Amino acid sequence: MSTVFFALFISIFYIVGFAFLGGTIWIAWHSLRAGNWPTTPATITDLDIISQSDGEGGDSYEVKVAYTYEVLGKQYEGSRLAYGYGGSSGREAHQQIFDRLQNANAVAVRYDPGDPAQSCLSYGIHRSIQIGLAFAATWLLFVFGFTLLFWLFSLPDTALLRNLSAN
């Protein structure tokens, strides 16, 4: 009975880990795909660094950007910096992004040729995606290790028993 309970219990953690890994891979795929999209000039209409506090002394930062661009004579508005980009601690990394955009004479937006309303300013496997992949891998390795420990504890110690000299 305890093995069935453990299997049901641990499966929840595997599902969460594989769902997170799948979601991160999906975002990474979109981010890489955007590297093949055409580009067009864009005008930044709003740019800011948002700071959020968790009340425990930890802050997270995120660059918020809005831009306009034109494709085949039609105006579009976008706000995606990159697929998967999100806030995190460490203001310096976000400040560098902000400074690059603020000091740019011009920016190019990448847009999906099948749906020009889908756009981004950057692409590739950036830090937010790397962190997501590392977290998912760490989560799954921990759950696998925990499963392995449970399995080993459930086995008899045959080597010890076989080599035990007792009269």
TrEMBL record:
InterPro entries: DUF3592
Pfam families assigned: DUF3592 (PF12158)
Membrane spanning stretches: 6-29, 131-153
Keyword Transmembrane helix attributed: yes
Domain DUF3592, chain residue ranges per copy: 40-125
Keywords of this entry: Membrane, Transmembrane, Transmembrane helix
Protein name: DUF3592 domain-containing protein
Annotated organism of origin: Blastopirellula sediminis
